[in-house]
Amino acid sequence: MVMPSKRNDLPRFQRWSKSYETSWLQPVFFEPSMRTVLEVIASYVTTQPESVLDIGCGTGRLLRSLHERWPEAELLGVDPTFGMIEKARELSSAIKFEVSFAEALPVPDASIEVAMSTFSFHHWSDQQAGLREIVRVLKPQGYFFLADAVQPGWLARLQPRSHMQRPEGVRELFQQAGLHVLHQQLTNTKWALVTAGRKELAAD
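Structure (tokenized):
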């Protein structure tokens, strides 16, 4: 669920990989938000997809839940932190995991039906480049589900260059990349925003 940027996050997340599964943030923040993400995905993806990609997968918690729901789907998780990927591989042999940044996905063009990213977007070095990569790997009319911490208005004024986006900023980035925004909602924690998008045919 976490994806460090190329700047200075990698050592911190490498250390966190050892205790990420048991972090107090899991029941308080990540798990409630993940339930919302799964509900939004289920409202749009009503049949089992062939291929699913999780960008910034961390230790693979979301993919493990999806494997229970879609046991025949080909699931791939990518994260730039080796420790997170190592732990993810230990926890599930049924899912493929690779070390990778969002801006350079190890996936062929138009090969993924459903992509997602949870709580890594504000860590990406180049959000536009990452979204363009997602559009590249999505099949026509493929879905992308993004969940990330939402930036309050007062923080936007204090940190105008923050990578944390407001809802309108996410919509604009989606549209610029070639993703049609289908849905946005806050999770029940009110600190995270879920955005559902679909690859537009014009972007093929």
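The chain has one domain: 25-203. The first strand starts at residue 51 and ends at 55.
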